[in-house]
Amino acid sequence: MSKKTIFRGAATALITPLTPAGVDYEALGKLIDWQIEQGIDALVIAGTTGEGATLTYDEHQEVIRYSVERAAGRVPIIAGSGSNDTSRAITLSRFSCEAGADALLVVTPYYNKATQKGLIAMYNAIADAVDKPIILYNVPSRTGVGIEPRTYLALAEHPNIVAIKEANGNISKIVETARLVGDKLDIYSGNDDQVVPILSMGGSGVISVLSNVMPAQTHQMCQRFFDGDLAGAAKMQMEYLPLINALFSEVNPIPVKAAMAAMGWCENYLRMPLTRMEPEHWEKLKTIMQAHKLI
User: How many other CB atoms sit within 10 Å of the CB of residue 227?
Assistant: First the structure.
């Protein structure tokens, strides 16, 4: 574990229940309570799955503040506070700290991208501005820029940078990162189909989309690994793979929003440019959810 481990196990990258009128805070509160009751280890608020990119700035702040208040210290709350505008990321990160978030999830800058030098400058500027631990979020398929293993090593020198959410999909690069950073940074899988492989490389858990619909099971998959039941953890990873694939059959969070609506947790409402799941994809997801008795 790193110099300041935030959580060990499964954190849900939580959806944000929305309606045409705005954020459905009643539904959000019920979701937070259910996730915690199911044994989830932490919650990520207003990240990619939480549609942070299309929340207004006021909504983004209020969703974080509300979630901290509702969780009431029962699990760590990790605020999605990244942006392609470093000054905005600093402002939102400072607000999240003041609101009581336990940690920050800061994505690489999208659209304008950055060089590796630019990533180091940006992350150090944000880390200098706050007093809470930061998880670096690497998802090049969405942002167009990736963090290289040696860049992680450089960023690990900052005392407030403590972990990685790694969603680059490249196991070889993740192995290289683990070799370089050692225990300086915790590594969390950012892909649900790679939880056990990353745990086997010394990873600390997963920041998960799957755990929106299966919080107890996603926690248990990690716990089995930590308890030494590698075969049991691997069996769960393989058992849930068809569901994981269906949850990513369209861009996240389109499928998981449809799944959570079918389970009765929220409306199936997304902000444009996201639109509802295509019927043929939904039929496949629905069939798999029925097989797991989720609906």
Answer: 11
DSSP H helices in the chain: 25-37, 57-71, 86-99, 116-129, 140-143, 149-155, 171-181, 195-200, 215-226, 230-239, 241-247, 254-262, 279-291
Q: Catalytic: 137?
A: yes
β-partners of residue 106 are: 136
- The closest alpha carbon to 12, from 32, 28, 26, 37, belongs to 32
> Max Cα separation, the chain?
48
What's the predicted TM-score (pTM) here?
0.96
**241: helix, strand or coil:** helix
Using the CB atoms, write b or e for 80-113: b if 16+ within 10 Å: bbbbbebeebbbbbbbbbebbbbbbbbbbbbeee
Catalytic residue among 123, 132, 152, 165: 165
Domains of the chain from N-terminus onward? 9-229 (3.20.20.70)
The 10s digit of each residue's pLDDT in 26-59 is 999 999 999 999 999 999 999 999 999 999 999 9
Q: Out of 123, 132, 137, 152, pick the active-site residue.
A: 137
Q: Are 133 and 98 in contact (CB under 8 A)?
A: no
